[in-house]
Design goal:
This protein has 185 residues and is an alpha+beta fold. 13% of the residues lie in helices and 29% in strands. It has one domain. The radius of gyration is 16 Å and the shape is globular. The relative contact order is 0.17. The structure holds iron/sulfur cluster (2 copies).
Length: 185
């Protein structure tokens, strides 16, 4: 059984992808993790990257290849991906923690400091985490980015969150949100 039959990637399949950096690179700082295993006609991630860190080329059905040495973890490729297949993982936080940044197109949005339930690729609960940052800006065309602190052992497992309901004053992506795009360079 492969990922197409299973619906999600195994660890072996994941680290076999040319868009997935090594754990050594992840430990050095934020970097894109491109979980895109299918040969489909798609390349906005390649054109979104200002650092030429993603290569698809011709034909456009090729699987994206990441050059981790060019990637600074800016996150611009995340909202560009229609499949929400790209994440930023930062294993350099220390204290047994890592940061995972993911596209999050649900309301209510969480806010920095919120405790959230961590979910794996299959939507199963993986533990508890804390929101570090929410970036909701028009630059991202209504795809907010959420950065969550996770145990470092779950850095390559957590790929979604479940916020607590009923939180007041949540940013609205259609209004530009908190507009914090200072890391988008
Ligand atoms: S995170 Fe930024 S530098 Fe890295 S691949 Fe994406 S757009 Fe390029
Ligand atoms: S934009 Fe997303 S779905 Fe399209 S090739 Fe890039 S990673 Fe894959």
């Amino acid at each position: 059984m492969n990922f197409e039959q299973r619906g999600i990637l195994t660890a072996d399949e994941l680290f076999g992808l040319p868009g997935v950096p090594s754990m050594e690179r992840i430990a050095r700082g934020p970097v894109a993790v491109i979980e895109c295993p299918q040969e489909i006609p798609c390349n906005p991630c390649e054109t979104a990257c200002r650092h030429q860190a993603i290569t698809i080329g011709e034909p456009v059905t090729r699987i994206p290849v990441l050059d981790p040495s060019r990637c600074n973890g800016c996150g611009l490729c995340l909202p560009a991906c229609p499949g929400q297949a790209i994440f930023i993982v930062d294993g350099s936080l220390g204290g047994g923690k890592a940061a995972v940044t993911l596209p999050f197109e649900f309301l209510p949005l969480p806010a920095a400091g919120d405790a959230v339930t961590l979910l794996d690729r299959g939507g199963r609960e993986a533990g508890q985490g804390e929101i570090i940052k929410v970036t909701a800006t028009r630059l991202f065309d209504r795809t907010p980015l959420v950065t969550v602190s996770v145990p470092v052992s779950l850095a390559m497992a957590v790929r979604n969150i479940r916020p607590r309901l009923g939180r007041p004053n949540q940013p609205n992506p259609s209004e530009g949100g908190n507009g914090d795009d200072s890391s988008l360079a």
